[in-house]
Give the backbone structure.
Amino acid sequence: MNARMLIGQPVHRAEDSRFLKGAGRFVDDLAREGMLHAVVLRSAVAHGRIRGIDATAARAMPGVHAVITAADISAALGNVPVIPLRLANLPEFKGYLQPVVAGDKVRYVGEPIAVVVAETQCIAEDALDKIAVDIERLPALPDRHAAAADASLLFEAAGSNRAVRYEAKFGDADAVFAKAEYTRKEKFRCHRLTGLPLETRGQIAEWDKDKKRLTVFGATKVLFFNRRTLAPMLGITEADIDMIEVDVGGGFGVKGEFYPEDFLIPFVARTVGRPVKWIEDRREHLVATNHSREVDCELEIACRRDGTILAMRGHITADMGAYIRTNGGVVPAKAAQFLPGPYRIRDVGLTVEAFVTSKTPVGTLRAPGRFEANFFRERLLDIVAADLGLDVMDFRRKNLIQETELPFATGKLVPYEPETDFDTGDYHVTFERAVAEIGWDQNKALNGKLVDGRYRGLAAVPFVESGGSGKENSRLVIEKDGTVSVYVGSSVLGQGLETTLAQVAADTLKLPFEAIKILHGSTTYLKEGFGTFASRSMVVGGCAVMDGCNNLLAAIRVAARERLGFPNEEIEIADGVVAAGGKRAGLTEFAGLEVEGSFSTTTRTYSYGAHACHVAVDPRTGHVDILDYVAIEDVGVAINPHIVHGQAIGALVQGLGGVFLDQIMYDRDAQMLNASLADYLVPLATDFANVRAITMELRRSKTNPLGAKGAGEGGMVAVAATIANAVAAALKPLGVEVCDLPLSPARLWGLVNGASLARKS
Amino acid sequence: MKPPPFQYHDPKTLAEAVGLLGTLDNAKLLAGGQSLMPMLNMRFVLPDHVIDLNLVEGMAGIKETDGVLEIGAMTRQRELEFSDLVAAKCPLLHQALMHVGHRQTRNRGTIGGSLCHLDPAAELVTVCMAHDATIAVAGPGGTREIAFADFPAGYLTPAIELNEIVTAIRIPVWPAGHKAAFIEFSRRHGDFAIVSAAALLQIDGGRITRASLTIGGVAVAPVRATEVEQAIVGQAPTSELFAKVCESCRSFEAMADIHASAEYRQHLAVVLARRALEKAADLADNAPWNRAH
């Protein structure tokens, strides 16, 4: 690519006009002729054996078309399908997969038991109350400790509530620990929360009984995988299914995976022979859509007295909820993999254990595992620095990987992934920038000081974050008016890909932005696509577009020579004009020309950066005021700095929510205590005013021709680490440590109060 | 999240509304709907009839007569927020309104609806308790007035009969120049408070001559800190005095829920009581908890 006219420019988002005018079309905005409405009957019992379901009264209600249970599905298909794994496909998980509807047992509150299809949603909800479900209650497993006892088994056939235990190592940590001058071990815990997109899940399924074709509106994230999963369940071929993505109001990792409803709604649509809409309500969303993060860690470090880190051992224990869902295993695996972080640690020993409990299953949520791992490690580093009498920043500087050491081998710390290296970067530049931005040198004397009745605390922590790998496809067509339609396999969940992918295409084709149309989210567009997750859509999807553009340019040249008799010399293509040796032709002459593109890499990108903050903690209430927060990230190349900045600020605020507000609570019976937005608290626009993000473009990625690295999650990965260290620094005079999330005011007041009680006694 | 079927009524007069309420079984009154609508949609309440008060004539308005601010039950919170009369005569109410939900909810929410829902942490409930307000109700037998101290009968339960409608709130105003402070501690701005504190002080010649201190969110209804009120009248307002006397708030009976334990609430009662008094007495102008939202 020669002229970079649009790449790197803060082009206004092409999709904003539509959204701001209320012209977006989300799945609930769609209606189909003769459409019925489905609602799902969900278990109110955490763990139990289903003795019987009587839907006679519900079926008899006027306006009710069908009530479907496991028995109906078995009768139609011969079995109740089970949802397969998409990522972290470990063989141990096979016995813990979720059936699309509960048959013999329920294993969490919110598990689907039946689907009601009726003329209206109101009638369907009325019918729910008429279904009698007889459940023999079994002991609830509200946490992983209860699960580990194996006194009550969620899966009798599996024989244990421990779904997996594995070890991963790099070097020989045990040998280093055995002779280390100094070691320190601490326990940390991250709480359970969820992604909470503003738009809940939903879909419309429509069965054309003449053509025997299924259309599903509302699919997103991984349409092709979901189609591949659904087709055999229904006994049809992939080609019989169209998955259509419409506008999506946020995903954050939790939306778009294959859930029970992704089978149930198409199945009932085929059964009743009418289009069926299902829109998840917020209460359902909080019990049915993936939770995440609930991981605890025993972390141990070995150092020289001078602060040189020698080795690390970590034991990650995860509460997976009731089933291993499509990507659930990613959470503990990444929480373990990212424990060493951007530091020079050559001897690492990790153990991962994952337990099933009678709670909503877990899946990935923006920055899966990283949010947790960085918190565990960075808290321990501050504790160690205090032990050894080291400046917390100097301690990090000493161990932070130098650019000359890259690529830095990190071994095979994830059993289902290849060995990996940190690729490019200067970790010290971003770290020093964060240290400077927060005014560490001027402000560090404030650490632990009372100012206006509040304790001040500062922190800065570096991070490294993996992004896109794998494959993506594109298809380009020159339209009659000379514009180019670009069909992509990436999914759009609100992150502005219609704009950024158009920037890539426009630059590569040397066309104006307006001449490009990005078309996404339909399995009819491409033979195969791979979707949007793990900050991959620019790295992999963007490069697939670029490859398609280059193929289109080549095809234009061939056509110019063969069809239009262009001379056999260099053909210039720019601004929609094809020219060589005095001959010129507009792109309209090439209408109908069609090419495919693709990009594939097995090597992940590693963006990196640092977060820093300055907080004030009110010891009398436990409230933390963020005076300043800055997130720095080198994304390689920022295709659209405006959008990258929005991603960073959004991730940062979502991360702050995860530290202070978002928390899913269960009681001892594994009943969720806060399944509404009155009690599940998410950050509002006014809650965190003092946040800044700085995007840097220091080192291009070598894995892809755009030079891009992932940019969707770096704003989140280090938030818990940074805030917790700042709060701990603030409360240092009280002699308390911060080891558990969330940092709710009640928890912090508890720490402060405990310290003051200890002083009195 | 759709309500079960119910019959909707939209009376135009108070007499008509009282008549419907007196004759229909299992009826619910709809004021601003900011609590009732979600409760209907979540099927927490299952009424057979909903009587909408929004078209009833003469139930909204703000006026002052003989030192009493009279507010119609259907007066929107947003109207109170922008009322010069409220700001001038009842600064505590004005301050409290800034904490009531969000602009969008205040556009619909009414003072009468808020008082009848009687959330223990609702700002308007706390203000009425602080001001010794009187609640006017209408029923089949005519009208009566209830002292606000007697209005809460229990958690989310006002002491009115099933066939009675709250029509107005009467707030005796304090003399010009009195001091008022409303502060609260909540997880997010706009949420119900975990604990709130409302302080009214009259200070003459450097001494407190009259005091009212109310703590919301701790018990099932706001509590007047009478021990503190008695201890500070006659005294010069100082932070030391307030710190000492507010310790008594720790003995309030307190609720526990998923957001706060009883012990934490009792502690917050002590902290917020002191801060509200300090703010009312202009002793803590720069304190972070006194910053305007």
In short: The first helix of chain A runs from residue 16 to 20. Chain A touches chain B at residues 121-122, 125-126, 129, 281-283, 452-454, 616, 618, 620-621, 623, 625, 661, 665, 673-674, 676, 678-679, 681, 683-684, 686-687, 744-746, 749-750, 753 (CB under 8 Å).
